[in-house]
Amino acid sequence: MAERKVTRLRFTKNELTDEKVRRAAAKAECAADRAEKAQSKLPKKTKLRIIREAAGGASPGSKLQPKKSADTAVRSKLRVERVEVSAGRPGFVKQTGKNVAHASAVRALNAVRDSVDAEDDGNAGAEAVRTGRTTANATGATVSNVRYYGKLKSHKKAERLIEKSDKANVEALYQQSLHADPDAPSNPLSRWRQNQTIKKEYAAAKRAGNAASSGASAASGAAKKTSAAAKETKSLTEKAMEFVKEHPKGILIVLCLGFLVTFISSAFSSCSVLMGGGGQVVLGTSYTAEEADLTGVESDYTALETALRNQIDSIESTHPGYDEYRYNLAEIGHNPYELASYLTVLFEDYTRAEVQSTLQDIFSSQYTLTLTEEIEVRTRTETRTGTTSYTDPETGETVEEEYEYEVEVEYNYYILNVTLTNKGIGALVRSSGLTDDQLQRYEVLLETRGNRDDLFGDVSFAIPGEYTDYDIPGEALTDTRFANMIREAEKYLGYPYVWGGSSPSTSFDCSGFVSWVINNCGNGWSVGRLTANGLMGVCDIIPASAAQPGDLIFFQGTYNTSGASHVGIYVGNGMMIHCGNPISYASIESSYWQQHFYCYGRIRG
What we know:
This protein is α+β, with helices and mostly antiparallel strands. It has 19 helices and 13 strands. Strands 8-13-9-10-11-12 form a six-stranded antiparallel β-sheet. A three-stranded mixed β-sheet has the order 3-5-4. It has a two-stranded antiparallel sheet with strand order 1-2. α10 packs across α13 (about 355-365) and α12 (about 335-345) crosses α15 (about 435-450). The longest helix has about 55 residues, at about 125-180. It is elongated.
């Protein structure tokens, strides 16, 4: 197997003015340096090369050779050079010649040893020799294996670094193409197809570079025949012209028929390519499993989430005896298109039964429920009863009386902290170890939603919506608490909806966004990370007629969960700011939000 070469790219000064091109080129250069360094450490072997040098006359390689004679031949000298070449990757094929040549000698030696063993059966000396021979053979085999795997490891490392170098080169070429055509489409499907095209072109160019020497030889041989071919072509051309002059009508008919046939063939060929290419694009952007399996798997995953929700709801009965239960809960839910896209990348045309164990693994990675006991030493005031006695001065009798007094007493206050984190399937997929091609396919499937927008019904935040801006009237902002909330909330306008997200670093889901605003707006509130239903618990429910800017607005039934399933911050005039997809303002008077409206709540404190 020929040694793979490290490829280095060259970019113009104009291209390197682009920050992304310069950064990608620098990474490609570093990757090439590492690959060449690993190649330089590969085992080498020495070969002898014999060179005949003339004692006099022209130097080797000169076109003016001296006159050959027996005298010159006698005075020729032989020079031996040692040349270092790559030892090549160790393998069975390289050892075949040695094994075959050595096989007969080994068989003969084994036959002699067997006969000696048979004659010396029971001989202590012979037994000792056999034991020593076995130990020596085992030791030799071990040493040989260690050397073999050491060499193999070096070659594998070099090959791996060359692959990384090629990948970095492809990325640099991709950035170069974006620099050359900044108006190119930027959707995930276009990026994926463009990247695949660059990979193929790069691989073809690299193969052509490795075959350059043989190609040059072929070109040289072809050049020598050009003159003779040209003369023969000239003769044939003259004859053809004479034939055309003699049969003009026949030639015209033949040309017309030829043109018609070519046109029809090209049309069918173009249609075939168009249909084939279109079919590949549609297949690459579509879910390939049956609809019953897609919806069945979604139902199974939702059932796991329902069981988790029920487990949390029953915490206080399954873990009794605590003075307080503190909940810090992420929203339970997922984007069904993320799940379907991930499973399609992993299994392609999967069945419901086939992916059950994978669903459990995804669920365990997405959700983490933690119960932590906390004990606080607190003090409280207790009223106690005491007695006192005194002597009546008139009667001389001793009288006892009771009285009450207060004391500060320390006691243990038991708290159970219930924390649920939701990593989100999207974040889970991106850290799952998918290859670049698999991740690009996932992004394309998610962007196109498998060409099935209607597959999972009314899941509003699984599908990106429109960004809506809104100017809040100045008089509403005279309320300091509301102004603080809006100042914090508007920092994140345009952020995408991420199931389970609860901070700017991860982006947000609806309750994560509202919880973050409440905790960080500077109004002195601290409610932790709550679900939409949990946020209702820190509010006083108020009628719609009493709603003011800064109150929370709750909705139900936006996905499969009981109670409040979505929450936003009411800003007045029939508008709210909420984490849709993306975070933006929205009218609560649309038919969708009116259909799902639940109630208003005013934050306590």
